[in-house]
Design a protein that fits this description.
mainly alpha
């Protein structure tokens, strides 16, 4: 499979991860895990993620790897992807085992029986962000 096709597919999957994370964790009901996620962290993940996908898509459309492509948009998009990835991994920390007298028991949800879906999505987002950065730095796309 060619690298540009992989980049396009991972860009679409990044959008899915951002949107599904927002849908899964919105509202006041307890989320899947031990504690609810901070609304600030969720907002950073959503806003930065949507901006990252939009700006990265604009960068890809304007001419990947050509002199026509705007490198500043690419750099902005990569920065936003890294911010989204860090926020997503911080969201995953809520599944770390809690010990102590006042720790809360795990809470289930209808999406999964644990953090598996979120781990897959956010580790995939990390791999995608690393691939985007590598491809950008070495002009592979």
């Amino acid at each position: 499979m060619r690298l540009p096709l992989i980049v396009y597919i991972l860009t679409a999957l990044a959008l899915v991860v951002v949107v599904l994370t927002r849908v899964r964790l919105r509202g006041d009901a307890p989320a899947a895990g031990r504690l609810q996620t901070s609304s600030l962290l969720l907002n950073v993940h959503t806003i930065a993620g949507l901006a990252a996908v939009a700006s990265w898509t604009a960068f890809l459309i304007t001419g990947i790897g050509d002199d026509n492509g705007d490198s500043q948009i690419g750099i902005l998009a990569l920065g936003l992807f890294w911010l989204t990835t860090v926020a997503g991994i911080m969201i995953l920390f809520r599944w770390m085992p809690a010990r102590g007298k006042h720790s809360q028991a795990a809470v289930g949800d209808s999406w999964s029986t644990g953090p598996g879906l979120s781990v897959l999505a956010h580790v995939g987002m990390l791999v995608g962000t690393v691939l985007f950065t590598w491809a950008y730095m070495f002009s592979k796309i």
